[in-house]
Write a structure and sequence with these properties.
Low-confidence stretches: 575-582
Distance between the termini: 62 Å
Helix content: over 70%
Number of strands: 5
Radius of gyration: 41 Å
Largest sheet: 5 strands, mixed
Number of helices: 16
Length: 582
């Protein structure tokens, strides 16, 4: 294994050295050519040297962009792995020559990290299981203690009941009236014993809900309150949400708060009717205790009514308590506890936030790059000096590079098949096509200034380079439409209706603008084709003619593609016409 790794490292070093040597040689040759050209047209030597160094630096930067991008991608992948975030795209971590071995190791590291995370998750589950077992053992021990306490406390009341029964039996000779009074006294004592026993069970146990659950425990408390106060207690208790949606300890805290509220009602309210409701709404758990008693003044009764304690319990869960009461008008206590997002949902929220931020940044750079490329085309049509055209194309290329950096983040976070990633890829291909196509036209600017070159330009070399750029541009155009097809295939039709309409309207506006440009061009003289263009005017005329010819062809292709997609059969039971009409 180590020998294979060493071989991979050596091959990577050889590949890096080879590309760097070739890049240095090409950058040096380009710098020498620029220096020779500048010297031949009479530029002073210090300026020539500075110009040559700048050109060499820019050329070296462009020739090593693949290494820079690969290192940037490796840095992002390692940062995500260190932070415990998933790396979704396997293809992004392979075949990055000359750093292919490095990305192969990154791919292995990603697999190991995934296994470690799975083991950590299993270990966490095992620890939770041990904690639950320990808690159950402690609860069992507490129940044993509680049984002893119940024996000591309830025993005296049961003894009193037995003594009264004996007294009733001894007094039956005196008449049934007095015996009936004693028996009624016995019945009340038995009821009090039952209520006190229930209260003692739920007050002294450390986990009073583990056997019956919160809902049933609240029903028992409501029944006990009715026995104590002779009030009518109405209960409306909905099912609880899943345990993972509630903060830890929620059921225990809710039980204690309701218990405290019932205790206040029993001691102070003198209510005839009490209402208890528990329900979920708007991503939160709601508990409401209401009575028609005498009420109280909150400002003067907080300490005695236990409100600070209840509010503290609610705050520990991230919740709040709202108390509404006035003297003589009853009391309403409302407990609000917001749900906790599941761990998976929280992780997904972090990933979604990262994807959204990267998408926004990449979209801004792509939009600016497309605007710069469009500006370059407009400058050609307006016969603006070539320096401004070249500068606009350089800006568009820089925006493309920056957009790729952010779209890489989307790939690592969501994968290359993510729907949002498809929309980015389409715009990336569209921008690169625009840059290559306009660069193909700009190459023919060189023959128009050939009188400034020391040697006559090789037209065939320029033609070969132009055809190569045109071929690459055509490939990017085809790729953009293929990505767009995939984007449409995985997106919901209801989400694409407006986009389809906007694209068709955009094609129509573009055709109208093209027609306007064609009409205006006739007022400034006819466009003629000269090959090769030997003057700046001839190059401008050739470039304008090429743009005016390609422009409607691209509009036609996009229009046909949009109409073709709208006419395809319904996917997955979607109602396209209904969505469109809606």
């Amino acid at each position: 294994m180590q020998q294979k790794t060493m071989q991979q490292v050596e091959s990577m070093q050889v590949g890096l050295a080879l590309q760097l040597v070739v890049s240095f040689l090409l950058a040096g040759g380009i710098a020498l050519g620029v220096a020779s050209l500048a010297d031949s047209i009479g530029i002073q030597q210090p300026v020539v040297s500075i110009l040559a160094m700048v050109v060499a630096g820019v050329a070296g930067l462009l020739l090593t962009l693949n290494i820079q991008y690969s290192l940037y991608l490796a840095h992002l992948a390692l940062a995500r792995l260190v932070g415990g975030s998933p790396v979704e795209e396997d293809g992004a971590l392979r075949w990055r020559w000359p750093l292919t071995p490095l990305f192969a190791q990154l791919h292995v590291l990603k697999q190991h990290t995934r296994e470690l995370l799975q083991r950590e998750r299993l270990g966490s589950e095992y620890r939770d299981q041990l904690l639950r077992q320990a808690s159950e053992a402690a609860a069992q021990e507490e129940r044993n203690r509680l049984a002893r306490d119940l024996h000591d406390s309830i025993k005296q009341q049961l003894f009193g009941i037995s003594m009264r029964v004996a007294a009733a039996q001894a007094r039956t000779e005196d008449g049934p009236g007095e015996a009936g009074v004693v028996l009624a006294d016995i019945q009340r004592s038995a009821q009090e014993a039952q209520v006190e026993m229930q209260a003692l069970l739920q007050q002294l146990r450390p986990a009073p809900l583990e056997n019956v659950g919160l809902v049933e425990a609240l029903r028992i408390q409501a029944q006990a309150l009715g026995y104590r106060t002779d009030a009518q207690v109405s209960v409306e208790l909905s099912a609880l949400p899943p345990e993972e949606r509630l903060p830890p300890g929620t059921q225990e805290m809710v039980f204690r708060i309701v218990q405290e509220a019932f205790s206040n009602i029993a001691r102070h309210a003198r209510a005839h009717h009490v209402w208890l409701s528990l329900y979920t709404w708007d991503e939160a758990l709601h508990v409401e205790v209401r009575d028609d008693g005498q009420g109280f003044e909150v400002a003067t009764s907080q300490s005695g009514m236990g409100l600070p304690n209840m509010r503290e319990r609610a705050a520990s869960l991230g919740g709040t308590i709202d108390m509404q009461t006035t003297s003589g008008a009853g009391t309403i206590l409302h407990l609000h506890i917001p749900f906790v997002a599941p761990l998976v949902k929280q992780e997904n929220a972090v990933v979604e936030a990262e994807i959204t931020t990267s998408m926004e940044q990449a979209g801004k750079y792509l939009q600016f790059g497309l605007e710069a490329a469009g500006l370059a085309g407009a400058l050609i049509l307006l016969d603006i000096p070539f320096v401004a055209i070249g500068l606009a194309l350089v800006v568009a290329l820089c925006m493309y590079i920056q957009a790729r950096r952010y779209s890489t983040r989307v790939v690592l976070a969501a994968g290359s098949t993510n729907v949002q990633r498809f929309s980015l890829r389409y715009r990336e291909h569209e921008l690169l096509f625009s840059i290559l196509a306009l660069s193909c036209l700009c190459i023919w600017y060189l023959p128009s200034v050939q009188h400034t070159w020391p040697v006559r330009l090789n037209i065939w070399a320029l033609l070969a380079l132009s055809l190569a750029l045109a071929g690459f541009a055509l490939i990017e155009l085809v790729q953009s439409y293929r990505v767009l097809e995939r984007y449409y295939a995985v997106s919901a039709w209801s989400e694409l209706v407006n986009e389809m309409v906007q694209r068709r309207n955009g094609v129509k506006r573009s055709a109208q603008f093209w027609l306007l440009v064609v009409v205006l061009s006739f007022f400034f003289g006819p466009l003629t084709l000269a090959f090769p263009p030997l003057t700046l005017a001839q190059w401008v005329s050739d470039a304008q003619l090429a743009i005016l010819i390609c422009w409607p062809l691209l509009n036609l292709v996009e229009y046909i593609q949009t109409v073709h997609w709208q006419s395809m059969p319904v996917r997955n039971g979607e109602d396209r016409h209904g969505a469109h009409n809606g």
